[in-house]
Amino acid sequence: MTEPTTTPDATPGATVTADVPLVRARGLVKRFPITRGVVLQRAIGHVHALAGVDFDIYAGKTLGVVGESGCGKSTAARIVARLLEPTEGTIEFEGRDITTLSRRQMVPLRRTVQVVFQDPYASLNPRQSVGQIIAAPLRVHGVEGDRRKKVQELMAQVGLNPEHFNRYPHEFSGGQRQRIGIARALALEPKLIICDEPVSALDVSIQAQVLNLLGDLQRERGLAYMFISHDLGVVRHVSHRISVMYLGSIVENADRDALYDNPRHPYTVALISAAPTGERGARTRRLLLAGDVPSPAAPPPGCTFHPRCPKARLVSGDPAEVPERCRTERPVLTDVGEGHQVACWYPIEKGDAEKMMEIQASEITLEGDPELGVAQTEGLTDAQPRPDDLVDGGTGL
Amino acid sequence: MLFIILLVVVAIFAPVLASLIGHGPNELFNRTMLDDFGLPLGPNSEFWFGADASGRDVLVRMIYGTRVSLAVGLLATLFAVGLGVALGLVAGYLGGIVDTVLSRIAEIILSLPILLFAIGIVTACGASKEGCARGAIKPGLMLVVLISAFFTWPWMFRIVRGVVLQLREREFVDAARAIGAGPTSIMFREILPNLISPIIVYASLMIPQAVLFEAYLSFLGLGVPDTTPSWGRMIADGSQIYDVAWWLMLFPGIILLLTVLAFNLLGDGLRDALDPKSDR
User: Cβ contact (<8 Å) for B178 and A81?
Assistant: First the structure.
């Protein structure tokens, strides 16, 4: 027992320091069985919603998770919230493994991890008044004291009129409902709030208000967020660190500015180029991804991104060819400096983006539709019709 | 609604009303109300709804019949709703093997020919005063109630289960789980309040069904004992001589129709009143 511990988090119950993340997820795998049969159900395959995901969430910081629909980001969030059980992998909370805790053992932990859901219309029980909804966590955890006063304080904090605690959810607008959801999440004074696309169901004008509210609460209370979104602009606004997901895996992890200024994974490059800039008349050159996202029931071998990867074709020098390594070996997240991690055999280097654009433009000109090809080379992609085999990375989100 | 209150009042104060009229439910007026051929006489100023084949006052018997009909309707529905809602919640929310077993049981009961089985049970249990199953089931009103409830709870079960299957996928159920609520709390606090509308509506449809069911059984001579007046038995008796005594079937028939209609309308009204989204 004199052997010194190598890492601080290897000792259970070690004092929580700034280095120990609030949440440490390692090797999370989630497979959903595809069943057939009515009485005797048998699995005929699996949907690989998560294929080995690692991430850390630090106290007081926001981890943004971006990716297309179906990439597993919500599954990851639900596993951290323990609404789903991971098939494999572990989740540690403040250094303590919580993966195998039963529902009863989880009850004290529920106080520290709360969830804000995507759809404020579906996540509030239409038969309960706002007061009942916000007081529910207090009731479940047996918090004593004047619950009504507490509820009204919470309502005031999230910018709702405390007099309205007797009203029902349908009497509120979408933005107000999401504030109710936030008040409910705050009721137990958690350390981490998992925001599963909290603004994607809201009007753009309301989104900013809710995001600012979340930001204010983070500063006041030192909250950590796990912020799931498909909206790159939103994620950039709120996150300290960002994980980009594709088909059940994290393909790139980086601090916010590093990710946007210097993306290293080809998928991240395509995602960022697909985001609208908001500048009038900006000549956007978009990196279009060919084909659809493969089915998570039958993910491609090797790097899951290789069938659509523009960089792979740049490396091979032939638009139809993909380097063998990409087809056979699955890349793991590798540090490329300053905490920037990327899961790619051939990370993007300076100048790659332009070369990929050129290949793309020449390919389209070669493949047919001359009108579109011309438009692409001129970089005016916005209003052009697209052939079916070309899917804008932006519209797929 | 008013009509239902009226029915309840009539049922409670049946003896008072009968004494006001001055005729007992089983009192025979075969001298005044039967003609020379032994056929009953129609409505007149003393016997508003006429007399039946034995010379008994139809109005007074209908007043007493209200008691039977309401008791059967409400009790049978209460049992069926209680059983159907509880099992439907459990099956829908827990799913898996519990759901499979309960659903199969419900389907088996639904696939039985109700009337045939009811007749069988009533005949078996109603043959002697001791009843069947070593006296556990005795003939009479309660037997009708239990049979009716037994055959109707699967309807409520299936409706509740179906709605629960939808509701449990809603995010507010996840939200309740995320704050640490247990399955019992979720079933009763989160899901049950959302079931009130369908439960009320279907219960309001089950009450008249139970009333009708009692009428069927009584019509077949299998319901309540002969001396207890019930609407179904009165219609049955009247059907034998409807060509000479139209009033025997008409008045109990009308009151049965109105009762069924009133409960259905009540169900509609309650559903609207209980929905927080309709401010009326």
Answer: yes
The residue of B179, B186, B190, B200 whose CB has the most chain A CBs within 10 angstroms, and thus the best one to mutate to test that interface, is B179
Residues paired with A242 in a beta bridge: A64, A254
**Band of pLDDT at residue B263, cut at 50, 70 and 90:** confident
CA-CA distance, A23 to A7, in Å (whole number)? 16
Q: What are phi and psi of A278, to 5 degrees?
A: 85, 0
Contact of A267 with A248, CB cutoff 8 Å: no
Q: Is the dihedral of CA A80, A82, A84, A90 positive or negative?
A: positive
B170–A122 C-beta distance less than 8 A: yes
ipTM for the complex shown: 0.72
Reported as a pLDDT band with limits 50, 70 and 90, residue B132 is low
| Helix or strand holding residue A122 (H, E) | none
B52, pLDDT greater than 80: no
Query: Could you tell me the residue ranges of all domains in chain B?
Result: 66-274
Whole-angstrom Cα distance, residue B264 to residue A171?
30
- Nearest Cα residue in chain B from A123: B172
Does A239 contact B at CB distance below 8 Å? no
Q: Which fold has domain B66-274?
A: MetI-like fold (1.10.3720)
- The DSSP result for B50-76, as a single string, is -B-TTS-BHHHHHHHHHHHHHHHHHHH
Length of chain B as a residue count: 280
The Cα A253–Cα A339 span in angstroms is 8
Q: Between A106, A110, A117, which is nearest B174 by CB?
A: A117
Residue A62: strand, helix, or coil: strand
Contacts of B179 in chain A (CB under 8 A): 110, 114, 136-137, 140-141, 184, 188
Helix segments in A121-203, DSSP class H: 130-140, 147-157, 174-186
User: Is residue A178 within 8 Å of residue A210, measured between CB atoms?
Assistant: yes
Query: Nearest-CA neighbor of A184 among A154, A164, A140, A219?
Result: A154
Number of H helices, E strands in chain A: 13, 14
Q: Which amino acid is at B62?
A: M
- Please report where in the chains the tokens 């032939």 appear, as a residue: A318
Q: Which of B104, B164, B169, B174 to mutate to test the interface with A (most CBs of A within 10 A)?
A: B174
Distance (Å) from the alpha carbon of A132 to chain B's nearest alpha carbon: 10
Yes or no: say if A30 and A86 are a contact pair by the CB < 8 Å rule. Answer: yes
Nearest to A86 by CA among A25, A175, A19: A25
- Which chain B positions have a beta carbon within 8 Å of A168's beta carbon? 276-277
The 10s digit of each residue's pLDDT in A348-390 is 887 777 777 777 766 655 544 444 433 343 444 444 444 444 4
Give the integer Cα–Cα distance in Å for A327 and A307: 8
- Structural contact between residues B91 and B102, judged by C-beta atoms closer than 8 angstroms: yes
DSSP SS3 for B149: helix
CB pair distance less than 8 Å for B277 and A168: yes
Contacts of A70 (CB under 8 A, 6+ apart): A293, A296
